[in-house]
Amino acid sequence: MRRNHRLPQGTVHRLMHDSKVLVGNGLDDPTRRELHVWTPPGWTKDRKLPLLVDMPGFAGTGPIHTAWKPVGENVPERLDRLTAEGALPPVVVAFPDCATIIGGNQYLNSAGTGRYADYLIREIVPFVEREFNCGGTGRRGCFGKSSGGYGAIYHGLHHADFWAAIACNSGDMGFDALHIPEFYVALDVLQRFDWSIEKFFRNFEVKNKPTVNDRHCRMFLAMGAYYDPDPSSFRNMRLPGDPYTAELIPERWDNWMRHDPVVMADAKGPELKKLKTVWLDCGDHDQFRIHYGMRRLHRKLEKMGVTHAYEEFDDDHTDVDYRMDRFLPVLAKALSA
To answer: What class has domain 11-174+264-336?
Structure first.
């Protein structure tokens, strides 16, 4: 059932991909993954279109974004509508599956989780470009929200020679404002399990109805496997501070902070000048306080002379897919020029 069945409909191609770079990943997650690719109405393989890659937020994955939604639009329906309205030039959009057993992905290479930056750049994008005759140098972009927004800005900062446009919607940054309050929440949950990460996860994974704080605890712990992995710990996760007093351990917290886009921008910010488009946006009262980090990054980029769009909107962190109506046309037009 589609929200508007009268619109011209693109096609969601459902493929399987066997990864080599994820072999031996730190979480023993599967290397055979489903890959969905949307092509616009009337697409044929002889049309060399730009390519966009979707990076979903924590607890999300590509196939979730193509699944039917009882209220609102899934992403392919949104793409169909934007195309029919003339707002979105023809593009191909890939929806890779980067799910992990710990619940999400930050789309970087980590000994704790796997080489997901390489997975996208060295495997998924080349595979899609071969199969659909799309993308190529200067015609690739990525977008995402929350952890996916983090992925988009991370890739822009570190792989500007590969991507040509990025959109970071409410992306994780400003780690002191974002993660330290979450650390306190996680510790309050963990104390019920003697501060054991393994006991917590074993309980979480069989629990019929995890609480909101349970889910926040899982998300916080998962970040440790990306930013400061410990191969001797359960699923490579460790805390950045004392579990009893919540005092941060400088060495541990420094490893987290060097992954903060606001910090990374000090050295890598000028790389964004290579991109055709850099889009940043967030709600002005994000409940994870991400707007403070986004404002810091915006100011730094302004001082560096990095051309970018920055928008704040009257909303929080939840259910903001409607923002795709703003930035997807911007990316597609930049890549089509």
So the answer is: alpha beta
